[in-house]
Amino acid sequence: MASTNNNPPLIHQAIALYGGTFDPIHYGHLRPVEALSGLIGLKEVIWLPNNIPPHRPQPEASSQQRLAMVRLALQPFSAFKVDTRELEKPTPSYTIETLKAFRQEIGEKQPLAFIIGQDSLLSIDTWHKWEELLDVCHLLVCARPGYQTTFTSPQMQTWLEQHQTKQQADIHCLPAGKIFLADTPLYNISATDIRARHKAGLDCHDLLPESVENYIKQHQLYR
């Protein structure tokens, strides 16, 4: 009996990458990505802690401390992996270069996505070689509290509309080229606030996993 499903067949389940300083990793990172992974049906999410982020202040915790916290936070999630290539680079990590390296490793047909927040999408034209991103991957955009949902630049808004899809299947059927705006839960949590709370001696168990909170206290971070 022929299938009545009009969606194109899945070629491969998409793999997604998610980068950040994770200083420290918290529920504002974990819960939207967990929701996004379930919504899209991602094969796996590879977390990429940065060593020298080019667009923001340098982290307070060391590379190895941030890596340890990420590994602790991801333990309950079988589909979440850690890749340390950006931590091992002595120079700034540019997203496009990391994505191209992954693309070479996984081949041209495997769907590859990069997860960003709404704030990053709206400033993406400031990224190094941003015009090449959709040649290499899809963009999966998580909602962020307090950020508008459209570009102020007509040219950038046109770029978004040309590439936007509302079909999750497109992320799996095509290797790259689409932008999916995900209706993920909003968590108004920031690493800056967590560091400030620790400096003030306040508890943060409601903002990040207990394993990470215990690590911060054990190593006397953010004091």
UniProtKB/TrEMBL annotation:
<dbReference type="InterPro" id="IPR004821">
    <property type="entry name" value="Cyt_trans-like"/>
</dbReference>
<dbReference type="InterPro" id="IPR005248">
    <property type="entry name" value="NadD/NMNAT"/>
</dbReference>
<dbReference type="GO" id="GO:0005524">
    <property type="term" value="F:ATP binding"/>
</dbReference>
<comment type="function">
    <text>Catalyzes the reversible adenylation of nicotinate mononucleotide (NaMN) to nicotinic acid adenine dinucleotide (NaAD).</text>
</comment>
<keyword id="KW-0808">Transferase</keyword>
<keyword id="KW-0067">ATP-binding</keyword>
<dbReference type="GO" id="GO:0004515">
    <property type="term" value="F:nicotinate-nucleotide adenylyltransferase activity"/>
</dbReference>
<dbReference type="InterPro" id="IPR014729">
    <property type="entry name" value="Rossmann-like_a/b/a_fold"/>
</dbReference>
<keyword id="KW-0548">Nucleotidyltransferase</keyword>
<comment type="similarity">
    <text>Belongs to the NadD family.</text>
</comment>
<dbReference type="GO" id="GO:0009435">
    <property type="term" value="P:NAD+ biosynthetic process"/>
</dbReference>
<dbReference type="Pfam" id="PF01467">
    <property type="entry name" value="CTP_transf_like"/>
</dbReference>
<protein>
    <recommendedName>
        <fullName>Probable nicotinate-nucleotide adenylyltransferase</fullName>
        <ecNumber>2.7.7.18</ecNumber>
    </recommendedName>
</protein>
<keyword id="KW-0547">Nucleotide-binding</keyword>
<comment type="pathway">
    <text>Cofactor biosynthesis; NAD(+) biosynthesis; deamido-NAD(+) from nicotinate D-ribonucleotide: step 1/1.</text>
</comment>
<keyword id="KW-0520">NAD</keyword>
<feature type="domain" description="Cytidyltransferase-like">
    <location>
        <begin position="17"/>
        <end position="197"/>
    </location>
</feature>
<keyword id="KW-0662">Pyridine nucleotide biosynthesis</keyword>
